[in-house]
Amino acid sequence: MERELARRTQSELNRQRFEPPVIRTASDIKRVLAQLEPNSRLNVKTDDVTLATNMIGTDANNRSQTYHVSAKTKTSSARDVLIEGLNVVKQREETAQAIRDRRAVVAVNGKEMKSPPVIAENSFSSVDPVISRTLGGYRSGYFIQWDLIDGFTYRYDIYNHRLTRFKTEAK
After folding, report:
1. What is the pLDDT of residues 81-124, one digit of tens each?
2. Is residue 1, in this structure, part of any structural domain at all?
3. How many domains does the chain have?
4. Is 9 helix (H, G, I), strand (E, B) or coil?
């Protein structure tokens, strides 16, 4: 009976671990942003780790062979993953702006027209699910935002580790 209770408790803990945090107040935001603190022990840069193993497999003649496999790996913190993903978004926005600035005006049937944008700026990015799962917010440009019921929007700049608050605009 005790083992079954322990199994159910562990199963519930595992399920809760993958649920996004519930953000209702500014203190909830500060709590989830604590894991992104640049000087935190969680975000200290680590050395590369070399992993090695011997694997047993078969060669082309179905003879058993032992293969030595090794690789260097790097540990990335949640902050590193978010910065890497937001760098892609930032680069996409800068490229779209550069293209927008250089778009040529072309005459079609006597009317001047501009070519359509090549890059969709507000499109889905691979960092979006990471933001919603780990921080309970959403991406706006290369910022992370939360709209709270207190009438304020909180915007986090991960590059400067700065949280700002502004009045939510009526939609």
Report:
1. 899 999 998 888 888 788 777 777 778 888 888 776 666 667 78
2. no
3. 1
4. helix
Quick check: is 56 in a domain? no
- Whether residue 162 is predicted with pLDDT greater than 80 in this model: the reply is yes
Q: Is residue 58 in some structural domain?
A: no
CA distances from 59 to 25, 55, 133 (A): 60, 12, 43
Identify the domain containing residue 126 by its residue range: 24-44+77-171
Question: What's the rounded Cα separation, in Å, for the pair 141 and 170?
Answer: 19
Query: How many residues does this entry show for the chain?
Result: 171
Instruction: Decide if 88 is inside a domain.
Output: yes
Angle subtended by helix axes 128-135 and 78-102, to nearest 10: 140
Instruction: Enter the pTM of the model.
Output: 0.68
pLDDT of res. 114: 75
Of 171, 81, 88, nearest to 134 by C-alpha is 81
How far is residue 22's CA from residue 20's CA, in Å, rounded to a whole number? 6
* Mean pLDDT across 54-65: 77
